Structure formats: structure tokens, C-alpha cells
Task: structure prediction
Amino acid sequence: GAVVSQHPSWVICKSGTSVKIECRSLDFQATTMFWYRQFPKQSLMLMATSNEGSKATYEQGVEKDKFLINHASLTLSTLTVTSAHPEDSSFYICSAPFDKTEAFFGQGTRLTVV
Amino acid sequence: DAKTTQPPSMDCAEGRAANLPCNHSTISGNEYVYWYRQIHSQGPQYIIHGLKNNETNEMASLIITEDRKSSTLILPHATLRDTAVYYCIGIFTSYGKLTFGQGTILTVHP
Result:
């Protein structure tokens, strides 16, 4: 199937710094991508919809100034966690729809803020 | 959105069939039933989807009741590597926005 690649797989950063996570569709184009967050022993929660060429759409309760999303091209979306704090530590996962019938997920990024 | 209900956990012996149920009584006529699984610390993996008819692929079979209010995912010969959280999703928009429930933790034991 189609491949979605996330980078980095894990990152540790100091409190107050910013972290950028990349999501790439390797063999198909995606005008829309989705960002999810998953806390330990919980399900995936949709954070935002990334739209190529326009602003991202955020779910209720997600701070758009803290989680900056840029859909730079048809194969790349980035999520920047700004001024990260320990409570932002989580597993971040992106997905991209394919062929209007499937969604493929990246391998996820484990963020730890110390 | 169609709400889905799954048992929180299930066990299965290696080599046996694993049958994972899902209730989606509010599903509408044009909503597909999708199944994904998530192995620990990885992104979700697509398994199978269906609308009305039963479906089978190399990974699993999907049995959907005639009234579409429930379905069962069948892993015919479970292996230890099938241990994961299995999500039944009752809504899928044309652009791939998925709403995950709590899923079923399937543990395959020797």
C-alpha cells in the first residue's frame, strides 16, 4: 500500500523550546493530511486537518498558536509544537487519505518534553 | 457520526481464529465500516473495510450483519504478531477523517 513517513520517530526537547515533526506521503499526493495525538493507554484524538495551500482546520480545544501546521507541498505537512511543556509529551501521528477509500498513517513521533 | 462499541479486551490462542465484534447501530446507509489496528507505539494499520457485503483480503475477513448494525472482524489464524488494539470505525468521509473509539485490545497467547 501507499506509504506515509514521519520524522523524527522520537524526540526529547527542553521545556520552552519548539519541535517540528514532518509527515510525508512518499508515493502519492495528499492535498489533505490529518494530525492526531495519543496519550498513554488512550485512543487517537484528531487535532487538526492540514490543507495544502490554505490554513489548517483545528479541532475544538486545540490551540492553533501552539500547534502550528504548514502544508508546504502535496507531499509534506509539518506540525510544530511551540514553547513545548511537559504536558505536550505525547505520541503524535499523521495520516493521509488515499484514493478516497483509505487512510494511511505515519509511524508516529514520540515527543518527550523535559 | 456513527458511534461504535467494542469490547475492551479479548484473548485468543495462537493459531485459532480471532473474532472481534463491533456494534454500530447508528451507522447510516452510506457509511462504511472500517477496521484498523495499532501495534504498540506504531501508527494504525489499515485492515479492511466494507459497506454491506462480507469482505475478505489477505489479512482478515469482515462479516457485516444484514441490518448493518454490527460487524465481526475475523483473523482466521491468529499469530503472536496480531496482538494489538483493533479499532472499528463507523464513519469515513471522502477525505479520510477518522474518529477513533477505544478499540479492543486483542492479546494472542501461545
Observations:
- Chain A has a mean pLDDT of 94.
- The first strand of chain A starts at residue 4 and ends at 7.
- Residues 15 and 52 of chain A are 30 Å apart (CA to CA).
- The interface with chain B takes residues 1, 4, 6, 32, 34, 36, 43-46, 49, 91, 93, 95-98, 100-108, 110 of chain A (CB under 8 Å).
